[in-house]
Amino acid sequence: MKLKTVRARQGLLWVRAGFTVFFRQPLAFAALFALFGLVVFVLLQLPAVGPVLALSLMPVATVAFLLATREVLAGRIATPRLALLPLRDPLNRNRLLQLGAAYAAAAIAVVLLSHVLDGGRFAAAIEAIATEETTATAALEDPLLPWSVLLRLGLMALLSLAFWHAPALVCWGRMPVNKALFASIVACWRSRGAFAVYGIAWFGLTMLFVTLLQVVTALLGLQQVMGLAVLPLTMLVSTIFYASLYFSFVDAFDLSGGPDSSEDEAKTA
């Protein structure tokens, strides 16, 4: 695989292509997302090891959505069986498990490091919100809380650089885990302009959807269902986001026999 030059405006095309491919087979993508959501829910019921196992599942989920997008672009039906397809090959399975373990360890390290650096401020705010309204108000007014949130977002963004393309690289590029992580970092850094646009676009769209939901529920006098409506909206946006990951990969790496770029895909959509 060879790295390709990615222009900043490609970030918008990734988002648009994600919406386009999702609406070609919305039920297929929703079923795949629901499957992983169910598995994660079950794993989280396990004490201690549950969250670790759920985090370890992320590389497999990423490859499954990459395969689903590729199937839809090829005019085939994307089925939930794609969740198991990456695990059929012994080499892919071993490397994905290694990648999952590395991701879980790194994510936990980020949480612990953030907790130390902000003195537990973020965790205290979350706990206060879940328990007492008066305490929650005081916690949310902490002037250092935004810094704590930005700290976590920044560290998770750095973590994402290493793991963004790595699942595809171990499966399609047949790379060892360490080389896949390094190649992912290099590719993401070279495409930093596109990823900045991509991230801003998703943030803006999410805020827009939430605002529209607030306006609609207020006009209908249904503010009490706002909390219930946020969950399906979050699932919808998350599913489309995962559907768009394929385009960021094929734009960054030269794949023989694959689509040239998300720009071409967007033109044919």
How many distinct helices?
13
Q: Write out the strand line-up for the largest beta sheet, numbering strands in chain order.
A: 1-2
Shape label: globular
Mean pLDDT: 85
- Over all CA atoms, what is the radius of gyration? 20 Å
The major pleated sheet works out as: 2 strands, antiparallel
Number of DSSP-assigned strands:
2
Low-confidence stretches: 257-269
The ordered H/E elements are EHHHHHHHHHHHHEH
Account of the protein in words:
By secondary structure, the chain is mainly α. The protein is built from 13 helices and 2 strands, in the order βααααααααααααβα. The radius of gyration is 20 Å and the shape is globular. The model is unreliable at 257-269 (pLDDT under 50).
Short structural description:
The chain is mainly alpha-helical and about 270 residues long.
Explain the layout of strands and helices:
Elements: E1 2-3, H1 10-24, H2 26-44, H3 49-56, H4 58-73, H5 90-117, H6 121-131, H7 133-140, H8 145-163, H9 166-171, H10 177-190, H11 192-219, H12 226-252, E2 253-254, H13 262-268
Antiparallel strand pairs: 1-2
Helix pairs in contact: 1-11, 1-12, 1-13, 2-3, 2-4, 3-5, 4-12, 5-8, 6-7, 11-12
